[in-house]
Amino acid sequence: xxxxxxxxxxxxKVIPALRFCKHLGIEEITLYTFSIENFRRTEEExxxxxxxxxxxxxxxxxxxxxxxxxxxxxxxxxxxKLLDEDFREVVRQIxxxxxxxxxxxxxxxxxxxxxxxxxxxxxxxxxSSTDGERPEEDLSRNLYVGRDxxxxxxxxxxxxxxxxxxxxxxxxxxxxxxxxxPDFSAWNLIVxxxxxxxxxxxxxxxxxxx
Length: 210
Hints:
The protein is of the alpha/beta class. It has helices at 2-12, 14-24, 43-62, 65-70, 85-98, 113-126, 135-141, 186-201, and strands at 28-35, 72-77, 103-111, 151-154, 173-176. It has a 3-stranded parallel beta sheet, sandwiched between helices. A two-stranded parallel sheet has the order 4-5.
């Protein structure tokens, strides 16, 4: 029961976090929502987690006011064939509803970076470029998340990437915190953003966020 309550509390943190990031002018966020490895959990926990995600998406379909307020362009990335048809239909609806918006929010569901890379390599081979692009450019174009990321934040005291955005994070600042995601606040995020900002300002690469 404790784990289920934790998942519910964690899901309630998503919109406040997105609202804060939108306020700071952050343009794209990817949330590691459900790993392919999570399918190894108990049947009850897998069912609960997927239903929780699906129900949250359905709430925003029925009441899209928050999506409109934050101008969210929602994309669900991963091996969606592993999800049932009802879930995939919900994904199609919400992605279609938000495709014209500008604040890009990627939900990684049924995702691992190794699967993403395998899929991208297959696509790159099948659609091999003839315009002189380097092979890595071909590969990047076929990834679920095509952009390099500035920061990777890992909560809960784990000091590992857990197969998340391995290709895109080669030059990222890795931020690990002991704070559990359900307890992660705007202040925790500010501390990490200031750390990132200090690092980048030393190289005159960005303007201050804060």
